[in-house]
Amino acid sequence: MSTEQLPEFSRFVSIGDIQAHGLDLSIEARPDECEKLRQRFDLVALDGLKAQLRLTQSTNGLFVLEGRIQADVTQTCVVTLEPVRSNINADISRSYGETEALQAVLQAMEREIDLDFEAQDEPDVIENGVIDIGEAVAEELALSLDPFPRKPGASLENTPYAGLDGADGKPNPFAALSKLRDKLDKKV
Question: What residue ranges do the domains of the chain occupy?
Fold first, then answer.
């Protein structure tokens, strides 16, 4: 893999280093890596990213990465556009397999017809005998980010546009949604 193809936060582990009892790992992003991840995920700030991980080999030949990630992020409020700080503490669980092991697992998965949205994702492919646990942590961070961050107390009702009619003379759709929310709150 060339340097320009490497993700912003790479930490490679050779599958040969994983002992029978597993391998415990602790990783942390350097400031330059945090800056690159901040740009990648369009964050206001990423003040830290670390993870406590464990890699084990399962009986079916797959390798399992489990652990916990922690990050301090600042995103932009979708209502006020002000910074919103949050601490992310998320579990991570992924599986990896070499081509032969993956083929067997995927064939077993294909026999199942039921769709289970809570089921674990398909295993990732191990390339060149290494697993990039840093990229796995970065991807988990992306999945853990609030897709619609809001500053405490921020609501569309407090914006200058709440309740205004649109240019076509129709009521503001957010005002209608606000009324619907109020009705639902009264029923609960």
Answer: 3-154, 155-188
